[in-house]
Amino acid sequence: MDFSGEGPWELPITGFRVQRLTFAMAVTVLAYAEEESVLISLPGPFSLEQPGVGLLRLDPERQSWQELDPLFSLRDDRITRATATRDAALRVEFSSGRVLSARSEGQFENWEVSARGYTIIGTPGQVTVWDQAALSEAATVDATELGDLLERLRQERRTDPV
Fold this sequence. Notes:
Shape: elongated
Distance between the termini: 54 Å
Strand content: 35-45%
Structural class: alpha+beta
Helix content: 10-25%
């Protein structure tokens, strides 16, 4: 998945089928396609648009699980399109016509999509992307920083009269 450019980005999860919903501090949607899976986590406010019903505003932090039960309509539904934007908007469309959407609101992460090779998080004002390139860069930086720290500790030992 390439997250270069300004987006919006098409997330490669078309055809994934919703097989599990978890209600806890966040609503988690788990969908599968063959040997792959995608996890969509919604810890803050989001919307569910349903044909013939309209737009429902949902918030797992403030609503009871019973109030979140319209989400059960996603069971066995297939994702037909999913997009994310640089300014932290997520839109997931389903074959039934239902649409999940979330934006970054407040001070905290409001949504996350994790699949093979990437994690994209709706953080305040923008997205944070962890793809293979970012993970490789982070690992390199961490190893370099660790090496610098070890060298400073060695030098301190040499100059520290014990």
